[in-house]
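job 3f2a | input accepted
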Amino acid sequence: MTINEIQDEIIDEFTGLDDWMDKYQMLIDLAGELPKLDERYKTEDNLIEGCQSRVWLHADMTDGLVRFEAESDALIVGGIIALLIRVLSGHTPDEILDSQLYFIDRIGLHEHLSPTRSNGLVAMVKQMRIYALAYKARQ
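job 3f2a | predicted structure (139 res):
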């Protein structure tokens, strides 16, 4: 599945929800489904700067595809990183770097997050792109 196909799928899922309380609940549910990050990856190096909550992000590349794992100590932020992982994980560095993450605006995420969570979202996307850039440079 392409990054845009996954984004369209997420937009469809969120469009079916009537109000933002339901959408927040979906984010909380997604956080609950996120596998726990191995303790060895919960290091200062893997903490995302710019997030009010603690978010650890780890990336590996196998067979030319970047795979992300993450964990947060906040449920809504955990749901946001779960969405980002769903969209970007399992793609090439170029696909990640070339992607336009339009689903964030289309589901209304930016406008319904507090400024600190919105800054955290930007920091998470930035860190994922930095990992992709680093893996591209190694190729």
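job 3f2a | The mean pLDDT is 94.
job 3f2a | closed
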